[in-house]
Amino acid sequence: MPVWKYGNNNLTKEDAARSLEAVKSACFGCETHGNDCPISKTASEIRSMMETEV
Question: Which end of the chain is less enclosed by CB atoms within 10 A, N or C?
């Protein structure tokens, strides 16, 4: 199960996928994404968490 490092929560992959979709739906659709975009950064962290086998 993936672990959300900020809360040390064990999540199912389905929970993580739902969270990723929610974060992506909050995107403002900027023409360029920078590393300082908190929405993009959070989505990337969730994707990485989902790929990690624990």
Answer: C
23-53, pLDDT tens digit by residue? 999 998 888 777 789 999 999 999 998 887 5
The residue type at 24: K
Ranges assigned E (strand) in the chain: 3-4, 9-10
Q: Which region, left, alpha or beta, applies to residue 53 given φ > 0 means left and ψ of -120 to 50 means alpha? A: beta
Q: Which amino acid is at 7?
A: G
DSSP category for residue 35:
T
Smallest CA-to-CA distance from 28 within 39, 17, 19 is with: 39
pTM of the predicted protein model: 0.77
